[in-house]
Amino acid sequence: MTATDEAADGLRAMIAKGELTPGRQLPAEPELCARLGVSRGSLREAVRSLAALGLLESRHGSGTFVSALRPGQMLAGFAATVDVLPLDGLLELFDVRRPLEAQAAALAAARADEQVVARLREVQKRLAVSEDEAERHALDREFHSTLCEASGNEALAALIDVLRARGSHYSIYGAAEADTIRLASDLGHEALINAMAARDPAAAAAAATAHLSQTEVWLRRYAPLPDDGPAAG
């Protein structure tokens, strides 16, 4: 283990034990170096690596602080890894996404209010008439983000957002069945909206599972090359 690794492990341990709480400024470098038994150079490198992972944040003119330690920040490093996966790796993620998105939909159906349902209806209304692929991708992401946020579980919503992100680089709207794909995707959204409106967690989970499974089928069938275009679902 390098000195930088030792410094990073020591800082993580201090955070995990509650010695360094969210929002607290790190002690002065000499104090930390003495406690961790590392040089200033190793400490600074460790701080940079932890900042990249979302654990620490530097504030110009103020110093380095422990971040808020929110789920979205903690998943920043994971997001960078997921965003370069090839198609076979992306398809493996569907086995993880299905139960997570089903759970998020079920929680959302149990907790969502009329404003959430209305927002989902409005987004889907715009999706149904849009002919612009970039716009459809943005609206699709807004739809699913709204639903996941309605679950009331920030960690679950953040993780799903990370797992969904890579799919945006694999477009299936240029396939021979593009019209069928688009219609099925829209119908999947409608099923989710209806489950939200009915406050039916079981129906919401089933709709989310079916919607995601259909997207996986299309990706396996057409095996598109990665680009900047949107994928359904």
UniProtKB/TrEMBL annotation:
Pfam family of this protein, just one?
A: GntR
Please give the InterPro entries that the UniProt record associates with this protein.
GntR_C, TF_FadR/GntR_C, Tscrpt_reg_HTH_GntR, WH-like_DNA-bd_sf, WH_DNA-bd_sf
The alphabetized UniProt keywords are: DNA-binding, Transcription, Transcription regulation
> Is the keyword Cell membrane in the record?
no
Where on the tree of life does the source sit, at the highest rank?
Bacteria
Look up keyword DNA-binding and say if it applies: yes
SUPFAM superfamilies registered for this protein in UniProt: GntR ligand-binding domain-like, Winged helix' DNA-binding domain
Q: What is this protein called?
A: FadR/GntR family transcriptional regulator
Q: Which chain regions cross the lipid bilayer?
A: none
Q: Where is the HTH gntR-type domain?
A: 1-69
